[in-house]
Amino acid sequence: MNVLECEGLVKAFDDLVAVDGVGFHIAEGETYGLLGPNGAGKTTSISMIAGILESDAGTVTVAGTEITTRTTEGKAKIGYVPQDIAIYPDLSARENLRFFGKLYGLPKQSLDSRIDEVLEVIGLSDRGDDRTEEYSGGMKRRLNIGIGLLHEPTLLILDEPTVGVDPQSRNAILESVEQLGRRGTALLYTTHYMEEAERLCDRVAIIDGGKIRAEGTRRELVELVGQRDTVNLGVVGSAQRLVDALGAVEEIESITSTEGSVEILVEGASSLLPRILDIAQQAGVGISGVEVVEPNLESVFLHLTGKALRD
Amino acid sequence: MRAALVIAAKDLSQRIRDRSAILLGLVAPLGLALIFSAIIPSGTESFDVKVGLLDDDGGPITAPFVDEVLPAVTADGIMAVTDYGDLPALESDVEAGSQNAGYVFPAGFSDDILTAQGGTVRLLGNVDSSISTQIAQAVLESYLSEVDAIGIAVGSALLSGATDVDDITAKAAATPAAVTLADTEAANRELDITTFFSAGMAVFFLFFTVQFGVSSLLEERFYGTLPRLLGAPINRWAIIGGKALTSFVLGIVSMIVLAVGTTVLIGAEWGNPVGVLILMIAGVMSALGIMAVVAVISKTPEQAANWQAIVAVALGLLGGTFFPLSQGPRLLALFSKLTPHAWFLQGLGDLSAGDGLEVVITPTLAMLAFFVVTIALAVVFGRKRVLAP
């Protein structure tokens, strides 16, 4: 069963069409990424999905309940983590959580214990009673996510949760998201960081100019655009001898050599690599180093849109 | 409703915590009321105008003024009248300031009036006692307007051939009582100075107090929490309702605490508690509406705070919270009705005169009209903007 189904979402601001026919679905326990540069339409799309922004057209259903700006029932199934830190600086983490817990209608008797659980998950148990204005940026980010988790949503929407975060906090946030995915929470994750999408997401939609350009697993997306793996070999001895020896391997699309190294373009490098090394040994060429570069979403995005993700 | 209460409870705890609401809602108005009431003598003593009287006429036209009007305003504590026998002494005392003003009725004044020739009364004023002089002038003008009416009647009678001077004189003599009665009632409807400044400061700072609630919507946007509220499973109007409730509670609590505080500390007399509470509720609602309009047309909390301060001060001044409008130009008193402040103070003034609760109906309706109109404007201006993520 799909946790989220959205179809034909459209939103225009005056003459600017920010989202133009966006539609996708997320299955139970799936982590789905919306990958695109700033201004691609990611935040506008998820604002409509979360029932925050009125759409001009299209439908959103979460766990079978239609979502609009006026519905309340379906919104309780959604956890929303906005891109900007959305907490009250003059309240403590515990007070922030209690306020939003009450808004989401969590029972009074279980609210405190649930707050303790969330503080534990986001690693703020020992600072829960401090005002959040005293927190570091990373701690605020974690609380920002914690508020979205509080009511144990069926679908958790995270809008670029690592923007402006130091590497250590970023890693902690990504680990938290991975944990949530493992627990079976359906996640909708927007980012313009290719590495995050590759690390976290089961499926990814490439979005640009308000439209989804492509969608699928990382492998599907890579295959979609015909990208190949690159194997870089450090060579001790004659590189040309290795090039000649590998010439008979059909799976190799192209091979080039420079002094001390050989670059091979191939489909499915991981399965072919043992054979390549075997051939090198038979040819009497020593291998000093191996690097496999798989095609990434950055190159997919470039191929689909003609521009880099960070443009 | 539950969500609105949750939001209001959160907002109120924030306001209490940052102390700004306490400062502007309680400390500042109470402090200023204490200071003003200490600087300006309480009761009607502040308008105890010292007036010298030189009556060289002693005729039937001046007699009612001298024998009835002046004793009446003296008895009300508005004036202290001293008789003089010659003009130089009166002029000297007025110039020296021992008398704030002086009335001079020249010999033959009544005869001139009764023969339709027109008489002249001199009013002497000390240059440093402009308000006292204006009060003395107001009392005299009220009387003379009646004399003018009589003069016209007398003139008409003479032109028609009437010669019965006694009848005409009796008619003139019978009139001034109405002047005395009208002035006395007007004086009674003014709040005493202590109550005036207590109520004036309370309603002045009320506009600063209620802004905390309505402007917090802009703060939600500033802190990024508005999208989170919009994404919560609550009716969107609950967000607006919560903010309005915050404003209302802050406003009404500050007003009640100020009323009780000034009554206990400086002896302010607010009047019938039920009537006062009705006026307070209407006053808070009008302030809420006006500040809501300012909030919805502002883009940032800072911009809203600046504009709200300007509006609060302007309306407070125009509404007569810093000085009794009865001491100012009539036009100002008229324009003051464009503010809830003036209606609030008028309602309190009428209550303090000991009238029944019905006297608060008109001021209350006027303030509620402000609320209805301004809330409608806020909805029109802010419908699309306020709850946009």
The percent range for strand residues of chain B is: 5-15%
- Total separate domains of chain A: 2
- Which overall shape of chain B is indicated by the principal axes computed on the Cα atoms? elongated
* H/E topology pattern of chain A: EEEHEEEHHHEHEHEEHEHEEHEH
CATH superfamily of the largest domain in chain A: P-loop containing nucleotide triphosphate hydrolases
Total number of strands of chain A: 14
Number of strands of chain B: 4
Q: What global shape of chain A is seen?
A: elongated
Q: For the report, how would you describe the main beta sheet of chain A?
A: 6 strands, mixed
In the predicted model, the low-confidence regions of chain A spanning at least 5 consecutive residues are none
Strand composition percent of chain A = 25-35%
Largest sheet of chain B: 4 strands, mixed
By secondary-structure content and strand pairing, the structural class of chain B works out as: mainly alpha
The top-level CATH class of the largest domain in chain A is Alpha Beta
The chain-level structural class of chain A is alpha/beta
Elements of chain B, N to C (H/E):
HHEHEHEHEHHHHHHHHHHH
Strands of the widest sheet of chain B, in order across it, are 2-1-3-4
What would you call the quaternary organization?
A: heterodimer
Number of helices of chain A: 10
Biggest interface, chains and residue tallies:
A-B, 31 and 23 residues
Averaging pLDDT over every residue of chain A, what do you get? 89
